[in-house]
User: Fold this.
Amino acid sequence: MKDTFGREITYIRISLTDKCNLRCRYCMPEEGVCLKDHSEMMSEDEFVQAAEVAASLGVHKIRLTGGEPLVKKNVIDICSRISKIEGINDIGITTNGLLLPEMGKDLVKAGVTRTNISLDTLKKDKFEYISRRPAPRDLLCGVKAALDAGFKKVKVNAVLIGGVNDDEIEDLAALTLEYPIDVRFIELMPMYDSGDFGPEAYLDSDIVLKKLKLDPVEDDGTVAKRYRLEGAKGEIGLISAVSKSFCATCNRIRLTADGFLKPCLHSSQEISIKGMDKEKVREKMIECILAKPPCHPDLSFEHRSGSERNMNRIGG
Ligand code: SAM
Ligand code: SF4
Assistant:
């Protein structure tokens, strides 16, 4: 289905939970989530119903996210049910990767084809500073487990944080020389309560182009600008959501774990579908698609996202 600006909506991001086993400073507060009653969160059947409705409206790509989707008890069942929906041909999961060693193979069996693993640093002390939690013995455990599990595509997402990990751009990019993975550098977004970082943390992703000698790769219609290091097994991507918004080609809507459809990541507009039957959910999803704004306002340290939620409560 097209929105009012002619953009074809083919992609939904579904947040399965706002809980997480890490506490990344740019994503959620130290004290964790404000625990809602279980009955206020989407049930497995409601997630599957929402995915079915999305498919009926022309969505063919689903990304499961959170919070940390792998701490959700029934994540494998949800994946397995969603992968059987007619029209859905691409299921990805965004994860911090910590639980991939034990769950990777089951996710692949359940029909998940791609995984994006968030990893901002290759240094344990920095991992612990950013995530406010102990580092795993091997920071690459998630990447290695994902490759071993047989996902068709494995990507690493690194949020660029000025003064914290900008000295690791070369090392993170070099992962594409060693492993058949893509590494994507994501601009830090000024979300609701990600105020742990000052203005110097908000880097333009062009810094990556200044630090690395990269060959451009043809645009594939995704939000990342793509490049490659000579001789690499995978690509480098730049996701410049702050310095160069990609609203004009936005093809997605979002569903939060507590059952709100969001037309735009950076708007406070939310449409509840919790507790509704399929017909009503369809009506609300159409309303959500038609409510997509042409663009979100410019973002910066001073001009923060209009979404009144942290990223863990939206689904990044
Ligand atoms: N827990 C999973 C993970 O970390 O991959 C999935 C949820 S997390 C909210 C999804 C993505 O959002 C991660 O890649 C994370 O780095 C990114 N993210 C969270 N807060 C962000 C922010 N303020 N700016 C940019 N990216 C952010
Ligand atoms: Fe958890 Fe992912 Fe947010 Fe980090 S970015 S706190 S791993 S949800």
